[in-house]
Design brief:
The protein has 297 residues and is mainly beta. The chain contains no helices and 20 strands.
């Protein structure tokens, strides 16, 4: 059972404006890196923390490029450090469509685009007008991307693609790999916005957004041995749900999770919304996930 941090929200205020769709990674120096989207200037930014609760002021890492024709706004990104290079995959949005682009950096702050065109675009009916929310892992020399697809306001399904260079991608013939389950009240409308984390016993944990309706969202998790087939939903989904009357009263969106082995706990960061205000909060649970925590197929 996840419990929300008592002093939520941990990051954001009216001056910073809407903050959303975080992606957290543990750094070599025990710092935590949070990549996030900032609505005020339509860019992606980064912040750092020693404890996951108190955060530095955000610094812009990549801004929009209206001249490109496909990224009037940039948001919903993920960042990996591979060797000495930081690689970012991000969402570019323009004219009601969303695409995925790629950028690089030597210092993890100042990113530059390495292609002028998107590396992933909506192409088939279930992808609708948008591909967005890339989550990329680098395993055995292969880049593995999980992404959301469908409508632009909120996507509908989760999909998968692979690449040898992080630029040219091959979409899986199994797509979409995860769709809504109408029998589950918490995701009867659609799903989206995932982070995929390797797990030593379960294979891969997929933290994702479940939508009761297009305006009401919560945080869920499932596991898959290979990350692309045979998903088992957690019996205690949703892990994090809106709390009436609080800062996240309307929706809890886009989870990003880290396992703290030293303290044997999972922590989830998410963006919560109450009317027009959207900030970042955290929830945690003691102990690791086990197979018995999930439903049989």
């Amino acid at each position: 059972m996840f419990h929300k941090y008592q002093n939520n929200p941990i990051f954001g205020n009216s001056e910073l404006g809407t903050l959303f769709d975080v992606y957290l990674t543990a750094q070599e120096n025990s710092r935590i890196r949070m990549d996030l989207s900032t609505r005020k200037n339509n860019c992606v930014s980064v912040s750092f923390s020693n404890d996951g609760i108190h955060w530095d002021d955000p610094v812009t890492t990549l801004g929009p490029d209206p001249a490109s024709g496909w990224e009037d706004m940039v948001n919903r990104n993920c960042v990996l450090k591979i060797g000495d290079t930081y690689k970012m995959w991000y969402t570019g949005q323009a004219h009601g469509n969303s695409y995925i682009g790629v950028a690089e950096s030597e210092n993890g702050i100042d990113f530059h685009r390495i292609t002028k065109d998107p590396v992933l675009s909506p192409e088939v009916p279930f992808e609708g007008a948008s591909v967005m929310n890339p989550c990329v892992l680098y395993e055995n020399g292969i880049y593995r991307m999980w992404y959301s697809a469908g409508e632009t306001y909120e996507p509908n399904v989760l999909c998968y693609a692979e690449s040898v260079d992080g630029v040219t991608w091959q979409k899986s013939p199994l797509n979409p790999i995860l769709e809504k389950n109408p029998e589950k009240e918490y995701e009867q409308n659609r799903i989206g916005g995932c982070q995929v984390i390797p797990h030593p016993a379960l294979g891969y944990l997929v933290f994702y957004i479940g939508y009761r309706d297009i305006h009401t969202a919560c945080v869920c998790v499932a596991y898959s041995k290979d990350g692309i087939t045979d998903f088992h939903r957690c019996k205690t989904n949703p892990l994090v749900a809106p709390t009436p009357g609080e800062w996240d009263a309307d929706s809890c969106y886009k989870p990003s999770a880290l396992y703290d082995a030293k303290n044997n706990r999972w922590r989830i960061w998410y963006n919560g919304r109450a009317k027009g205000a959207e900030y970042i909060g955290m929830a945690e649970k003691t102990g690791d996930f086990k197979a018995e925590d999930f439903e049989e197929r």
